[in-house]
Amino acid sequence: MTIVQLEYLVAVAQYGSFSVAAEKCFVTQPSLSVQIKNLEEELGVILVDRSKKPVELTDAGQKVLMKSQAVLTAMKQVRESVLEMQGKITGELRIAAIPTVAPYLLHKFVPAFRKKYPEVKLSIFEYKTSEIVDALLKENLDVGILAEGFVPATINEELLFDDKFYAYVAPKHRLIDEKSIALQSLDPGELLLLTEGHCLRTQILNICSTIEQEKSDLTIECGGLETLLRMTLATNGITIVPQIAIPYLSQPDPRCIKPLVEKDAVRGITLATNRYFPKQTLVKVLKKEIIEHMQDSLIDLY
């Protein structure tokens, strides 16, 4: 049994294809297939069900896969520990943030991080939560920045900061003179929300389960906060915004931003990694940079 064989097995499990796995591992398909076959013969079990398209691991293959991932992670951590002892912070980080976080967070820490750690190659993406989780599980992504509570147990989450929710009320809305807004007091269908697939929508609906009991005569499907806010103003409506977005809103009227009565109207923003992600030193310095550059933005507005 060799490290190369374990790497090939992980690749086959990840891509569901011998040809794609071989391409990603920079070897020919016959070479990869022979190594997987040799591993099966040594262990005395079939690891890959080749009759299915895409190919799948057998039950035995799944068990060997888990051990293989742990072994490969430990090996990478050995290399990382040596670099850390030498005082080197290097490598590659592929980072993705959800759309309701990316525009208000990435620009705060990325320039400083690049300046402090010039040997780290950064790749930045903006994905929805489901896309981040899928990419982390397939190891196509190293780090996700998203809202807490939307990842499976195989993904590790570390809290970065709490992000409070505030009401965004159009100047001509009936609640514009209220000091605070109670979500439970809103008429069903009155609240404008992001389209399905955004965790921000799910979190708001979890806070107030009565919002969608009736259908509004206006349906707005938008995938970004800026469009949602403009439509809120245009329809004299009301919506919810996260605190980190407030400094960047185009509406200057301070009356439009109001605290919520609900004490649980907050989301945790987390840093998520695959359980087998080996670059723990990079994760630590990344987390530190994000928290430091967000401190001024997390002061309560009221």
Write up what this structure looks like.
- The strands form 2 sheets. Strands 3, 4, 5, 6, 7, 8, 9 and 10 form an 8-stranded mixed β-sheet that branches. This protein has a two-stranded antiparallel sheet with strand order 1-2.
- About 40% of the residues lie in helices and about 20% in strands.
- Strand 1 and strand 2 form a beta hairpin.
- By secondary structure, it is an alpha/beta fold.
Topology of this protein?
Layout (H helix, E strand, L loop, with lengths): L2 H13 L2 H7 L4 H15 L4 E2 L6 E2 L1 H27 L5 E7 L4 H15 L3 E7 L2 H9 L5 E5 L7 E15 L21 E2 L6 H9 L17 H10 L3 E5 L14 E3 L6 E9 L5 H15 L8
Parallel strand pairs: 3-4, 3-5, 7-8
Antiparallel strand pairs: 1-2, 5-10, 6-8, 6-9, 6-10
Helix pairs in contact: 1-2, 1-3, 1-4, 2-3, 5-9
